[in-house]
């Protein structure tokens, strides 16, 4: 279930709860209206019953025409019968439960019995009695029945017919009062009192039930909304943590989310992406190893170019590829892989800028970039293309990869992959060309000179200008071709990578390992990575591609000069020495780690160091501290550091020259190992 559906479900639940509550309230208020009507009818019935009782009591005491008394009394009975029957037959009694209906049915039966067997016969008797004697009607019309009866008793005697008739009327009325009081009034009052109590209880129950229903749906909706919100926050936090891990270079991190919604889809796609990135990194490593192994066996650059083209097509799943060389500033096809469509190689508006500027060009979906290759029905159709210039000190050619099937395109990962691959093969071809020249030299001195030139060209020609930092270094090879190496280059984001390395051995083999390390470290360095992460990737890449006797001790610094922060990692190299300008003392920093190339699963330590104004960062190889005099006395690290401390007010360029002079004076010009020294001062 996706997030939108979950949110819609929560909204629907809240709305349904609101509508249900409203519907319940409307329905129950209709019931309340019915019950209030029933209550009003019960009040009317009770009022009429009281009126009937009063008229019955006053019947023989009212000074009124007998026929009018009887008519008024009968009307009162009928009016009570109407309201009482209406109240008892009201369907709202069913709302109060089965027990209420049973009591009502009993009252209905009781009233019907009293009305049919008591009241109606009594009314008939009264009507007959009043019809017997006009004298009684005339007499009662002038005074009350009680007074008339007493007057008749005085005048005619208590055994006269009129006296007996009036006595009979009074007896019947007394029986009527007793019947109303004992049978009807008592039962009706109890029933109506209980009825009103039940109606009141029903109203209260209705109110509480309505509130409970409304609260239930609101609480349920809030609970589901809170649960959904908590899951979203948890998944977002998990995504942030995982992205941070990946940004630091840990591509084997997995995003584990099983929420059944878009977050799970994102996690699956993210894991596919990191897996693809890791696959590409491993693929790049395999390609570098394959190229590195091939370097030992090929005798010409053409063989290497053909191999590199084949590997590029294979690892990007391109339909075709071409390696174009440059002759007198013009491109020409040298090697092809697959059925590569024809391109205009001269005066082309895409290829010419690529060769001139040295920047790669990516055509994700070909529409207007290559109009002559944009027709999908044509044999020369190109749907997507990547053009990579191969240049080091000069542009050596262009590597082009294409998709020729409709709907098949390169992606950004393919493009970034080929850009890194292009840098690697550019350096490899350039170094191969130099190496072939070296191997073809007839004299050892010529070989050494060329190899030293390769090594020297790989060292920075000049140090980059950094904000708030001055830096200088020197590196001298004992045989002209050494294994010592340093590099300083910007990696973006205002950060600079500083590397010092000492490859075991001497001569050409050590120099080639140094070239490989320099090439790889420039390819994998980025501002998001810490020094230890770069060290891990560098070690994984070169492990297995060099012999066990060609290990290298290395130290890496990632310098954030703007914030004065150093990320430091060491692979069995000499420690980093920082001469603190504010206290005029050294601080030594070191981390655990094996030399590079021994164990591809090796781990490396890391330290984050704050640097301040007038601090001096010192790095050097053991060939410098172990230099010996003619008598065999070693210079030693303490003496070297004391010398640096005495000249800490000098600039890095001045300090480098002073250290070179110190080493030369101590050794007398007879060094036995490569020597590299790097000094960085915060200004």
Description:
The protein is α+β, with helices and mostly antiparallel strands and 683 residues long. The chain has three domains: 3-222; 277-433, Beta-Lactamase; 460-682, PPM-type phosphatase domain (Phosphatase 2c, domain 1), CATH 3.60.40.10. The chain is 56% helix and 15% strand. It has helices spanning 3-58, 66-88, 98-132, 134-142, 145-156, 161-247, 262-295, 301-316, 351-357, 412-440, 444-458, 507-524, 531-542, 622-625, 637-646, 652-667, and strands at residues 320-327, 330-337, 361-363, 384-391, 395-403, 469-476, 484-492, 495-503, 552-560, 565-571, 576-580, 585-589, 607-610, 616-620, 675-682. The strands form three sheets. A five-stranded antiparallel beta sheet has the order 2-1-5-4-3, sandwiched between helices. Strand 1 and strand 2 (330-337) form a beta hairpin. Helix 10 runs antiparallel to helix 11, helix 10 (412-440) packs antiparallel against helix 12 (507-524) and helix 12 crosses helix 13. The longest helix has 87 residues, at 161-247. The radius of gyration is 55 Å and the shape is elongated. The mean pLDDT is 79.
